[in-house]
Amino acid sequence: MIGFYEICLSNGLFLHHYFIMHQRVSIYLILFLHAIASTLGLNKTYAQAGSGTFLETLLKKKPQVFGEILKYRDSLKVQIIYTQITRDKNNKPSFTDYYFNVHQVPYFYPASTVKLPIAILALQKLHELDMPGLDRNSSMITESASLNQVSVLNDPSTADGRPSISQYIKKIFLVSDNDAFNRLYEFLGPTYINQQLVGMGYKDVQIRHRLEMMLTDEDNRQTNPILFFDEQGHLLYDQPMQVSQYAFQKRNDFVGNAYYQNGSLIHHPMDFSTKNRIGLEDLHNILRSVLFPDAVPKKQRFHLMEDDYRFLYQYLSQYPGESNYPSYDTLSNWDAYCKFLYWGADMGKLPANIRIFNKVGDAYGFLTDISYFVDFDRKIEFMLSCSIYCNGDGVLNDDKYDYEKLGYPFMKNLGRAIYDFEASRKNQFLPDLSRFKMEYDKKR
């Protein structure tokens, strides 16, 4: 019963109008359902389904930049989710989601966007361990228990050479570091990762392998022994090697027309059935749950402290050049290096009034960005997530993807089209965005 009410109440306005128009229930039942919604945290601040034609209409207004996208939406596997955010007089947000082609794409490779939930879960697990002195800045030593496992005893990117959860999360959001993801994957393990996300309602999630490492399914089920120490070298927590027995649902996901393997061209689609999977809508909602935890159902909130949220906000929005540790060469890691939407492949210094809190991913021709956009000067905010398949020849692993020609321009044009619309949208109450103003590591 509760599951039905959750579905109905997430679109409360529709429920209300449906019942009134069809006169099938009394106003008392409506009030009863809204009372349940309030108790469960499922009120109208949670996302409501938006019009299915809004984004298509918006894109059609600019045929010179979106004409090909509209025409070849399915072969390009284009997906877009745009969330309007409306504040009331108390600054409480409500959301309206608009979708384009989201449920028409059977599978897309999420690439580095899987790092978003893993970074959040790493902070959550630290709290759940509840070990005295253990926090995100504790020294994290990764050992190896097999030939295919990588040990990490120090981290030269830190001020004192000590690896930590904190440093790995920084590197994930600043430059999308694959090794940092792998270390957190090993700390969490696939059983914890998938049980937590499925339990939160993300039913189709399968995060089951490290990145940029050619390992078997069995190898990825085995995670390294990990030790945590305090600054004085005292052992805080000892996690032995784990072997996950998590039962992944069997899949039949294939991509492309051909692919290279060990230098040979294989003339049939590449099997992605044992690769990571998470839907665009799930990623979008995971980001929303971190940015606006009070506006989502309790079961979709991560177990975090306010300090965790501030830490995540900082590094979701910080540029590589604003980091002291790690320190990055801004010629190869420019401001918009991991900010595809609105900026595309633009280089150079970005304006101070605009910040994008996001996570990108690109691999096998798939280009994805999950973002929350803020303009502090003009009081603009919105969420925008999208993915596109940039592989015109259909061949995988040939390093010939259409990111520069197709993907980055699309992301830039889409971000600016939504921004322009938001700039013209009239709101009764302007948002107080002070929660998202961060102090960054390095002054600009």
Number of strands: 16
Number of helices: 13
- What gap, in angstroms, lies between the N and C termini? 54 Å
Secondary-structure-derived class:
alpha+beta
Q: State mean pLDDT (0 to 100 scale).
A: 90
Globular, elongated, flat, extended or rod-shaped: what is the shape?
A: globular
**SSE topology string:** HHHEHHEEHEHHHHEEEEEEEEHHEEEEH
Major beta sheet summary? 6 strands, mixed
What does this protein structure show overall?
- This protein has 444 residues and is of the alpha+beta class.
- Among the domains are: 1-44, no CATH class; 111-344, no CATH class.
- The chain has helices at residues 2-9, 12-22, 27-40, 54-60, 63-71, 115-129, 165-175, 178-188, 190-199, 217-221, 280-291, 306-317, 403-424; strands at residues 48-49, 79-87, 93-100, 139-142, 222-223, 226-229, 235-239, 242-243, 254-255, 258-261, 264-266, 270-271, 354-363, 366-375, 380-389, 395-396.
How do the helices and strands line up, and which of them pair or pack?
Elements: H1 2-9, H2 12-22, H3 27-40, E1 48-49, H4 54-60, H5 63-71, E2 79-87, E3 93-100, H6 115-129, E4 139-142, H7 165-175, H8 178-188, H9 190-199, H10 217-221, E5 222-223, E6 226-229, E7 235-239, E8 242-243, E9 254-255, E10 258-261, E11 264-266, E12 270-271, H11 280-291, H12 306-317, E13 354-363, E14 366-375, E15 380-389, E16 395-396, H13 403-424
